Structures are given as C-alpha cells and as structure tokens.
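Q: For a teaching handout, I want to show students what a protein-ligand complex looks like in token form. Below are the inputs, and the small molecule is guanosine-5'-diphosphate. Please produce the holo structure.
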Amino acid sequence: LPVVAIVGRPNVGKSTLVNRFLGRRAAVVQDIPGVTRDRIPYQALWNGKNFTVVDTGGWEPKATGMAASIARQAEYAMKTADVIVLVVDAAVGVTETDLAAARVLRRSTTPVILVANKVDDERGESNAAELWSLGLGEPFSVSALHGRGSGDLLDLVLDAMPEAPREQDDVGGPRRVALVGRPNVGKSSLINRLSKEERSVVDSVAGTTVDPVDSLVTLGGEQWRFVDTAGLRRKVNTASGTEYYASLRTEAAIEAAEVAVVLLAADEVISEQDQRVITQVIEAGRALVIAFNKWDTLDEDRHAQLEREIDRDLARIQWASRVNISAVTGRGVNKLADHLKTALAGWETRVPTAELNTFIRALVQETPPPARGGRAPKIKYVTQADVRPPRFVVFSTGFLEAGYRRFLERKLREQFGFHGTPIDVSVKVRE
Ligand code: GDP
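A: Here is the structure, written as tokens, with guanosine-5'-diphosphate included.
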C-alpha cells in the first residue's frame, strides 16, 4: 500500500490528524514531548483507496535535541513514504524545529504537503500565511481537532500519491534497449555489428535450442541488453511479414525495454512509417534516442535536405537525443552509449517538490493561465507523481487550456532538462 508519512514536532497535532485520516478514534497516544513512540503504521481508507498512515513520532529529544530528531524523522519519511505531510502549528508559528524539518524536506523528491494545523476559523488563516517562509509551497490550513479542511487535505494527499506504490528500481542487470525502425533502415546490420564486439547472447530458456531472444552488447564500457533481437540477428524473411506483424513485434520490443533507439535511414525521406514508430515509443512512455543510419552515404545536398526534414518533421521531438551513425563503417556507433545514458537519466529524473513549486509559482506569476468566462484559474500546487517517464500533476482551481499545458511542459523542459524522454503534464481541478 502507498505510505503517507506524517512529520512534525510534538504537540502540533499529528496524532489528531492521523485520527482524522482514520475516521475514528484510533488508539493513537497523545503527543507528549519526550515520550518515545514507535512509528506505527495505520491502515486508512478514503474515496475507495487504501493507504497506510505512519506517524513518524519516535522521539529521543534528550539525547539528540529536537531539531536533529525531526531532521532524522524527515529523512526517514523521505526514504520510506510516497507522500509526506509536514504538520506545523499555525497558532504557534514557525519554530527552529519546523525550520529544521523544512530544510531537509526541501530536498525531497517525494511530494511534500505543508499543513498549517490549528486553523480553527477564518481568523486563523493569517497565521497560516506565515508558513510560506518554510519554502515548501502553499500551506494547507486545517483544524485537525474540528475537522476543518481535513477532507480536502485527504483529497490532496491521494492526488499527490503515485498511481503505483513506490517503485523499486530494477536492481543491477544491464539496461534494456529496443532497436526499432521500419524495414531496411539497417537494424539487422547494426545489431550484427554491435554483437560482433561481444558474441554473448541471452537464451530465453537456458539449455534449450530455442532462439536466443535478446543480445548482450558492450558499448561505452557498459553492458546493454538489446531486447527481442532474434529476428534481427538471423534476418528471417521479413518480406513475408506483414506490416501488421512488424508493428506488433516493435510494440513488444518497446514494452520490454526502458529506452528505444529509433533507427532512421539518413538517405531517405522521413516517412509516415518512421513517424508511427516514434509515436509508439512516446505512447509507451519510453526514453527515446533517434539514430540516423547510413550516414556514410550522405552527400552535401542530401545533408542539407535532411536538416530541413528534421526541422519540419521531428519538431515534436526536439527533446530527443540524436546521433548519426553508420552500421557499415561503424561511424558514431560508440557514441550511442552516451545518448542512451542521457535519455535514461532524463527518463528517471525526479525534481524535488519544493524546487518544482518555487519554479512554477514564479512562472505563473509572470504568465498566469488565461481567464475563461471572466475567471482566471489559479494554479495551487504541482507534484511529480511519477518517473520513468516523468509525470506531473498540476492542481488548479479551474480548467487549463491545452495551449497553457503545452507552455508548462515547455517551461518544465527548459528548466529541468528531461533530454531524451517524453514527459506528461496533467491537470486536476480543485475548487
Ligand atoms: P533492417 O530491415 O532494418 O534490419 O535493415 P538491414 O540491416 O537488413 O539493412 C537494409 C540494407 O541497408 C542492407 O542492404 C544493408 O546492407 C544496408 N545498410 C544498413 N546499414 C547501412 C549503413 O550504415 N550504410 C550503408 N551504406 N548501408 C547500410
């Protein structure tokens, strides 16, 4: 189950908030400074979604001091949780201890929601505003005791939660690459050249005579697993394969891979079929490297023409890594590894929530979303819900037009890179 960690110094109302989340008086003990308490997980249910709430209490303030203790609490939450809720007592205001927690959490790549507790009525809202100074974005006011705002907070927590629980990155093993492209662009030639360096292949079933499915290749000092290359290495009658089967095969290879190399033939016009393969990679959410093969055949005229085609036909994937190679001469083939690494790095980038929101806040101030029907939507919060590829969720008080969403995507790319990876920006409307 996804884990929500509640972080905060004693007496800010963490237990009361946990009880609110659980919807009943659970056996959560009072926050008493100096009382050592375990990090007890509680099962919670909201809007049909199950999750675990952990009150990261557990204090040894005498031994270490409050600030150090809360810093550790925050570190622990960053390692284990899918969403972190930092609770601050708005009636008391920002303390040294809150600052210590915020300092740690500003680095967090896990979404952090800043809660201003004990805002029992409208008058308390001005206290909450002070919490902006923590650098964790907009403080969300609640009264855990009276329930004010707690339902909305739970909505926000669920929205910030990744679709799947915290993904364990594949440990070890070579990165998986799909080599795809329409017939005759040179896929077989390239895989044969790459495999020449390293003859090892991987059997689908060890010790059987079944066709080896993947090829292990050393490139740039690293091993890479080129998936589903059986047909490419032996070049089985592609002529008899219809485009339909070729497309299924491409899809399977892309699915099995983390990054796809789309091979294009530099001596031919970029075609519809090339575009379809590129679209398949984007829709599967894989990192993308574009390799122009047969570069050895290029003369100056064709080169100039190709540049124009790239500007016109590949404008939608300006972010993709591009490399020019020749499977025949071996030119540029060694550079492929760097492009694969760049694309994978972009694919796995996680932007710290605080950094993301600081950036978006400044951006929105400069260029606010256009008003529709007299009312301009307000962007409240952005979270990166996922990686591989990066997915962002923008919380807004109203619908954001496609043009403005594209603007946000472009600015996110300018700011944070994401070279070689598709990214996704979606909007959730909250009043
Ligand atoms: P596949 O269908 O994508 O696997 O393409 P093949 O590897 O069978 O290559 C199609 C044709 O292009 C063959 O005749 C290759 O010899 C030729 N070819 C492949 N790569 C290159 C290259 O880098 N330069 C040149 N000049 N020809 C190439």
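A: Two things your students might notice: Residues 3-160 form a domain with the Rossmann fold fold (CATH 3.40.50.300). The pocket of guanosine-5'-diphosphate is lined by residues 181, 183-189, 232, 238, 293-294, 296-297, 326-328 (CB under 6 Å).
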